[in-house]
Amino acid sequence: xxxxxxxxxxxxxxxxxxxxxxxxxxxxxxxxxxxxxxxxxxxxxxxxxxxxxxxxxxxxxxxxxxxxxxxxxxxxxxxxxxxxxxxxxxxxxxxxxxxxxxxxxxxxxxxxxxxxxxxxxxxxxxxxxxxxxxxxxxxxxxxxxxxxxxxxxxxx
Amino acid sequence: xxxxxxxxxxxxxxxxxxxxxxxxxxxxxxxxxxxxxxxxxxxxxxxxxxxxxxxxxxxxxxxxxxxxxxxxxxxxxxxxxxxxxxxxxxxxxxxxxxxxxxxxxxxxxxxxxxxxxxxxxxxxxxxxxxxxxxxxxxxxxxxxxxxxxxxxxxxxxxxxxxxxxxxxxxxxxxxxxxxxxxxxxxxxxxxxxxxxxxxxxxxxxxxxxxxxxxxxxxxxxxxxxxxxxxxxxxxxxxxxxxxxxxxxxxxxxxxxxx
Amino acid sequence: xxxxxxxxxxxxxxxxxxxxxxxxxxxxxxxxxxxxxxxxxxxxxxxxxxxxxxxxxxxxxxxxxxxxxxxxxxxxxxxxxxxxxxxxxxxxxxxxxxxxxxxxxxxxxxxxxxxxxxxxxxxxxxxxxxxxxxxxxxxxxxxxxxxxxxxxxxxxxxxxxxxxxxxxxxxxxxxxxxxxxxxxxxxxxxxxxxxxxxxxxxxxxxxxxxxxxxxxxxxxxxxxxxxxxxxxxxxxxxxxxxxxxxxxxxxxxxxxxxxxxxxxxxxxxxxxx
Lengths: 156, 258, 273
Known about the structure:
The complex is a heterotrimer. By secondary structure, chain A is of the alpha/beta class. Chain A has helices at residues 3-29, 139-155, and strands spanning 40-47, 58-61, 64-75, 80-88, 99-104, 111-116, 129-130, 132-134.
């Protein structure tokens, strides 16, 4: 094998290895391989309190990821938080009376939006609004309620 | 007192003159890119000596850094019962910081110093002047391929470093300490974002590639053409590149992840 | 364009050349005419800027004042492209040879041909072997520069310098540090290349006897000025004190043996710093 071909082969192998590594980082390490990068349609959900929900948090239905949180903002008119959920286009048969709640993955994990499908015949479309929602659990409030409940019981 | 002020002023002037020369050199090298593309063989040779010869040290360091991350991460995370997120910790540290930064530091030590020494020796043995008198522009002919090879190699080397580091962490975490295999990868995939984490890491390593190669070439090209001058240029390459990489890393991190 | 019609036998015309390096004056109003077809030697003690002169002629340095014309072209008013075209017609031999260390002897000589001509490989091979034959190193074509002796490296560099058949060759200290045999070879080669190929040669050197033996015209530079010029015999019988010191190799004269200093007595017994 001549020196030239050897050089070309080695450099070629080097470049290939570099690109394989990048590809590996893309598909195996990051969410690029798992994220549905196709189209999604936006659906609005209003919450009294979104707790620690972040943009890009997953939206799941029966534990399967069906979308991502696209945007979160505060609606000054009714003093509630609005989360825009991007539902992947292939999930186009979610009933429009679906129930959205903010859940926590594990005890200290990140928060995500869970959907509970309703029984309606009509389905969610772009820009429709999820009417029934449940806010994030805020630990202090839960504890507060618990103590208050105990106090009530004790009084009775 | 006056004398000290004068010395300060003098070194300030010398510094800005060097900076000016470095920028002119960069422009000169960039002007040589079209000519280089017509002779891809020159680039090929430099990709070999800058890239291929650096792979081994990058690979070995990547595996060991990943293993250390796996070990340290496991001990800290297991205190909170969060071993499941080991994969996230290992991968995030690698693709965001350690991959680009450690690769750049190793690159400066391995390829950068070699570049400086080679160019400095070519200068001190009048090879660069010789080329000029043969009506060949040494900046285009000698320096441009080295610059481009450095810029191309760095992100690829950093990607290899990160990939092997993730496997190093996996080996320690999953193989030795008993973290669940599926959890390691799944947590990593759900938490590491392509744009936010990996692409930013790649951008970092491209920037480091430009800076490290530029410094190395400039130090060689601008050195005093004696054996002492060449050895000082080599030392300066490593010192300046390392400082530049660490400083720039802070700036880039602040810009990207604020 | 009037001056282009100047006498055709002057190849390099230097007028009023002034060049400073920092605060040190290297040249102070130097006039030199280098005739076509001959061997012109530029001599002077070390540190008089002989190499600088060659770099000025080759356009690698810019003078602070004065003009340098090569073949009727003002070197420092040319565009980069024109300067590079002019350089293709100049060969230069550096003190160390300046061979590219990562290429073999053959590839070094072929380098300018590959760079500036569109000749095919077999044509280049023939030309390179002819050039190597001219310096007697055809058999050494596979060696790397690191394997050559200093004299051989210079001969390879000569072959490379004549590869493009230039109109002139500049030699920077071709004899420094050579043993008598390779010195003799180089002396003979310079003369032979000059006469056989019809080029003009400029030899910068401080090796008096060797240089005088081949030069047609000699300029002696000292203290930034041309102190004497003429044919070698003229210089040998020169009356000028500086020239005599230089040609004869006398330890003391206008160039003093002692580096300038205060008197010895003052230095030894004074309270001096």
